[in-house]
UniProtKB/TrEMBL annotation:
GO BP term, example: bacterial-type flagellum organization
Source organism, top-level taxon: Bacteria
UniProt-listed Pfam families: FlgD, FlgD_ig, FLgD_tudor
Its job: Required for flagellar hook formation. May act as a scaffolding protein.
Taxonomic source organism: Halopseudomonas laoshanensis
Protein name in UniProt: Basal-body rod modification protein FlgD
Phylogenetic placement of the source organism: Bacteria, Pseudomonadati, Pseudomonadota, Gammaproteobacteria, Pseudomonadales
Length: 228
């Protein structure tokens, strides 16, 4: 298992952090040398009977200093962004082969080990339960949690059906429901998923995505926690 896209060579990273004020001027940009040359030329060719006011020179210098400051700020922000992206890439790559907890109702389950999940209960309920269904949608068993207060609650499936028989490993769906004010309401669940690989820059907004077993691609920002 490996990262799907490279994050750049060490030379390119060093180049990003090693920039200085002597960089080559691009296109129609005006650098320090060009500005000073223009300023000296302007002084040499001004009308001696109507010299330019000092205030005009100060205004030009202030304008150039402002533009130069914005350019320096942009360069600094690019370096900070590059460093953040590299740090995020290292963090994401460290998750390969590990389990993460994500908001989903499906999970690949090794039934010899079972699975532990969580559900979010928005209001107190007199009856909370989780239906376990196989990949074809058939009910395997029901996990009864009874009456529960508002909050996050754990549930565990041992990998057996309602008769106590071990089910085959595979993908299973967990439908958490609760009786609230006389109605059965669907609840959000959090389940573990194994990270197979990482893709850089393919998610929404160019963010990194995790390729997890049984679920496909999810954004790194969707990870609720990392399973121990």
């Amino acid at each position: 298992m490996s990262i799907a896209n490279s994050i750049g060579t060490g030379a390119s990273v060093l180049d990003q952090y090693g920039r200085d004020d002597s960089r080559e001027v691009q296109g129609d940009e005006m650098g320090k040398d060009q500005f000073l040359t223009l300023l000296v030329t302007q002084l040499n060719n001004q009308d001696p009977l109507a010299p330019q006011e000092n205030g005009e020179f100060i205004a030009q210098l202030a304008q150039f200093s402002t533009v130069e400051g914005i350019e320096t700020l942009n360069t600094s922000m690019e370096s900070l962004l590059s460093g953040y992206q590299s740090s995020q890439a290292l963090q994401a790559s460290s998750l390969v082969g590990r389990k993460v907890i994500v908001p989903t109702d499906k999970a690949m389950v090794d039934t010899t080990e079972g699975v532990k999940g969580q559900l979010a209960l928005p209001e107190p309920s007199t009856n909370v339960y989780v239906n376990v269904l196989d990949d074809e949608g058939s009910l395997v068993t029901r996990i009864n949690l009874g009456a529960q207060d508002t909050g996050m609650h754990d549930f565990v499936w041992d990998g057996t059906d309602a008769s106590g028989n071990i089910m085959p490993p595979g993908r299973y769906k967990f439908e958490a429901q609760a009786s609230i004010d006389g109605e059965n309401k669907q609840l959000a669940t959090l389940l573990p998923a194994n990270v197979d690989s990482v893709s850089l820059g393919n998610g929404a907004g160019g963010q990194m995505t995790l390729n997890v077993a049984g679920l496909g691609s999810i954004n790194l920002s969707d990870v609720y926690s990392i399973s121990q």
